Amino acid sequence: QVQLVESGGGLVQPGGSLRLSCAASGFTFSEYAMNWYRQAPGKERELVATIGTAGGKNYADSVKGRFTISRDNAKYTVYLQMNSLKPEDTAVYYCNRRTYGRDYWGQGTQVTVSS
User: Which residues of 96-114 are buried (b: 16+ CB within 10 A; e: fewer)?
Assistant: First the structure.
């Protein structure tokens, strides 16, 4: 069974940092691009970052320059390093694997940026 389990969320002050982890299992991790999404209350789910199988990365404009996505294929884990956090980054962050006709999601981890 495909499983994605996020961790690392929490409360952080504006300007602070967090590193989220997504532990994957049930598939050959290295063969898939992985994504981080986030969803704040009352807002649509937003694609935050993508990392391809060869390490290519893409980011939403709202996080570009502040967030870094990475992966460790040996550990079946994708990370999201979040720096210079802003209150508007507050959301539930989800790990995602998407293929044609099938989406897999983690349970989400809450990130709250507040003083």
Answer: bbbeeeeebbbebbebebe
* Length, in residues, of the chain: 115
Query: Phi and psi for 88 in degrees, rounded to 5?
Result: -70, -5
- pLDDT tens-digit series, residues 45-104: 999 999 999 999 999 999 999 999 999 999 999 999 999 999 999 999 999 999 888 899
Beta carbons of 89 and 111 less than 8 angstroms apart: yes
Whether residue 106 contacts residue 93, with contact meaning beta carbons closer than 8 Å, is answered with: no
DSSP character string of the chain: --EEEEE--EEE-TT--EEEEEEEESS-GGGS-EEEEEE-TTS--EEEEEE-TTS-EEE-TTTTTTEEEEEEGGGTEEEEEE-S--GGG-EEEEEEEEETTEEEE---EEEEE--
| Residue 112: alpha-carbon gap to chain centroid | 14
Distance from C-alpha of 22 to C-alpha of 42, rounded to nearest angstrom: 24
